[in-house]
């Protein structure tokens, strides 16, 4: 037996002191890989509509949709050619409106990506900007003269493994691209650019969205003096790209980004109940996360890559990240947590080691649902999907191709969602070979294969999410880390008179357990009666 759930006391989520997003569980959908409705091998908005009932059955509060905007797809949607339209491969604005209506009818909020730091080089703004140095949009992107010897203006490197400057003969200047050459950086220092971006925000609010995830937000502003980035001397992992050898204090993270965030938040906060969360990478993510979410005039939440690229999950990792958000400072923001997403290898493949994958998937699901903050669940995570093995000749991710084989890239986390285990190797995703291969291990873990199994990973996710929704202590209460042995993780969650204790053993050996607790509500692995907590086990109990 790997899991047990006991009904806990139910608390209304409509109490006046509770906002819907605080402690919410949000399901991330990567549209290209969720459901193909028209037989072209690529997922689309109509396919999402068809599968929203599955999402609602998990008990989550909302969905986050990765980009579906008009794009030449150099970076699979994160290179946007029109911020206010749907790419034909995904459908139409009418399809988006139907999606909003279906989601709201199921009680699901809809959050969409916004990319404010860059556009596609096929965006009409950039096409105008690159024509001359004196046109109306000449300064809407980051342009700079060459050095006297023709070399780029400084040493900045792009995330995807090349210099961050591209020569353009029309203007006889370089333009900045922190990502692909096809993704020129917008000049957010320019007030007209900010105003145009705010109009984009209003457009989607008018269509009924309930919030925004702001992609690569701290890349939005650069050092206007174009000074060199300093050399990086401390590495969290061995460097594999030129980007890794620099500390990116000049090419991103300009302090003026906070003023722009306040402008964005002012527009969004005109609509009741809207949620904003920033993705924050870079050299000092915690400081920026705190700055971006400080007080009531900025964003609601932020997350970084604490867990997304973590190679081993330990009790100390959890203690450290939770201690960063003690809620002891006036105006402190609210964190969000993700173990997997479309940019990182799936967590279960990074962390499980020799543990049974289904068992480990339940363990980290329970851990994620017990943390203080918002929770993001990436599509397929509720099935316990491991990282897919995509052969080199099927890779499409530009990062994976450039850095192969030193990095896994993102394709293995983006393969299609398996819906049916009925002997068809396309698993109900499409009727034709999809844009990325459907792998056999994923077919075996399809939704239909787990639906009727009470001990499946899928049904455990439903139980864990239900418990979190029912308990305000888990959903929005404070967290207090208990002093224990190094490998034992124990903390309490409290809200008012309600209290829970969460205890986990993330190691491959049994640990001594001498902490008092009451009735167990949900557990992974059997709790031993002899004062020992078995390997890879955990539970949430009354305190």
Provide a compact summary of the structure.
By secondary structure, the chain is α/β, with parallel strands linked by helices. Helices cover 24% and strands 17% of the residues.
| Number of beta strands | 21
- The order of strands across the largest sheet is 2-3-6-10-11-12-13-14
Note the gap between the termini. 24 Å
Q: How many helices does DSSP assign?
A: 14
% residues in beta strands: 15-25%
Question: What's the overall geometry?
Answer: globular
Radius of gyration: 23 Å
Largest sheet properties:
8 strands, parallel, barrel
Helical fraction: 10-25%
Question: Layout of SSEs?
Answer:
Blueprint: E1 3-5, E2 25-29, H1 45-57, E3 62-65, E4 69-70, E5 82-86, H2 93-105, E6 109-115, H3 124-129, E7 143-144, E8 165-168, E9 173-176, H4 191-206, E10 211-215, H5 257-268, E11 275-279, H6 285-293, E12 301-303, H7 315-323, E13 334-338, H8 347-351, H9 357-370, E14 374-378, H10 398-403, H11 440-444, H12 447-451, H13 457-470, H14 472-476, E15 478-481, E16 488-495, E17 498-505, E18 511-512, E19 520-524, E20 532-533, E21 537-542
Parallel strand pairs: 2-3, 2-14, 3-6, 6-10, 10-11, 11-12, 12-13, 13-14
Antiparallel strand pairs: 1-19, 4-5, 7-9, 8-9, 15-16, 16-17, 17-21, 18-20, 19-21
Characterization of the model:
This protein is of the alpha/beta class and 543 residues long. It contains 14 helices and 21 strands. The strands form five sheets. The protein has an eight-stranded parallel beta barrel. Strands 1-19-21-17-16-15 form a six-stranded antiparallel β-sheet. The N terminus is likely disordered.
